[in-house]
Design brief:
CATH superfamily of the largest domain: Regulatory protein AraC
Protein name: AraC-like DNA-binding protein
Largest sheet: 5 strands, antiparallel
Structural class: alpha+beta
Distance between the termini: 56 Å
CATH class of the largest domain: Mainly Beta
Number of domains: 2
GO molecular function: DNA-binding transcription factor activity; sequence-specific DNA binding
Number of strands: 11
Keywords: DNA-binding, Transcription, Transcription regulation
Helix content: 40-55%
CATH architecture of the largest domain: Sandwich
Strand content: 15-25%
CATH topology of the largest domain: Jelly Rolls
Shape: elongated
InterPro entries: Homeodomain-like_sf (IPR009057), HTH-like (IPR037923), HTH_AraC (IPR018060), Tscrpt_reg_AraC-type_HTH (IPR020449)
């Protein structure tokens, strides 16, 4: 299955947004190869068939499909009479040719946003059926109206809002995948870590609470989130440290002791690894509540 990856640091460039219909059922999907354009198709009414390389897709009302650039796509069957659909042709974001360091993870639950978040990529779902058909169609109608306005910033607005629309489809896919057993286990672990954020759980405590082998849990967590269990728990602790710095005007030693670190030097090392700056530098940069 040929899926499209988009970097989290850029937005797709919109070439065209359109809306079409076939009242007589006399059209087929165009036979073509776009060398530099991806295609998104959403069926509002009826039924259309699209082939990409050797895979045939049957799209009915409420379903969508992403077609990847440089791949041959066409239609063997005529559209169902009365079919209506939206389409979006879009370029890769600038910098998409550079390899991303990792796939974006939707499991992030701390407020800390590391720079590496913007060095990731999201893999768009190949095809799917939307949950809220009327809402999605209202979004597409708005995208089309925006694309057709004469506003000088039209390309930028269209690209930005289309990326937001694509992220909505991506989020729906993530929600569906979260129902899988392995994903439910990850959510249980994350809920456990956040239930008492100033407590760093040991491997034995985690295994006992989840009722699974720790080595398996550790591997599962790393594969799904891109972070080790220790790394994630450290991020939660540092998030708490940041709030203590902001709200209570406590110093580094006090916060280190409160969060259970063995000494302020180790706390400073973990803080810098998570945030990229030392706690003393961070205290010079932030606004503190009084």
């Amino acid at each position: 299955m040929h899926k499209i990856q988009l970097p989290t640091s850029g937005i797709p460039g919109i070439r065209e947004i359109g809306y079409m219909g076939d009242s007589l059922g006399i059209l087929k999907h165009p036979d073509r190869v776009f060398s530099n354009l991806h295609v998104f198709v959403y069926v509002e009414k009826g039924h259309i068939q699209v082939v990409e390389e050797d895979t045939s897709y049957q799209l009915s009302a409420g379903s969508y499909l992403f077609l990847k650039k440089n791949l041959h796509h066409w239609g063997d069957d005529y559209y169902e009479k009365g079919s209506k659909w939206y389409y979006i042709h879009f370029y890769d974001p600038q910098g998409a040719e550079l390899p991303a360091s990792h796939e974006y993870t939707s499991y992030l639950r701390t407020s800390l946003i590391a720079e590496e978040t913007y060095h990731a990529e999201i893999t768009l779902p190949k095809t799917g059926v939307v949950k809220q058909k009327s809402y999605v169609e209202a979004q597409l109608k708005k995208l089309l109206e925006e694309f057709e306005t004469p506003h000088p910033l039209r390309p930028l607005f269209s690209s930005m809002h289309t990326f937001q629309f694509f992220l909505g489809l991506y989020a729906q896919q993530q929600d569906q995948e979260s129902e899988q057993k392995s994903n439910r286990v990850i959510h249980r672990m994350i809920d456990l870590f956040h239930s008492h954020p100033i407590i760093k759980r040991t491997s034995e405590e985690i295994a006992e609470e989840i009722q699974m082998n720790y080595a398996y849990l550790s591997s599962l967590f790393k594969n799904h989130t891109g972070k080790s269990i220790m790394q994630y728990q450290n991020e939660i602790l540092i998030e708490e440290a940041i709030q203590l710095f902001k709200d209570n005007n406590q110093n580094i030693s006090e916060v280190s002791d409160l969060l259970g670190f063995s000494n302020p030097f180790y706390f400073s090392r973990v803080f810098k690894k998570v945030t990229g700056v030392s706690p003393s530098t961070y205290l010079q940069q932030i606004y503190r509540n009084v």
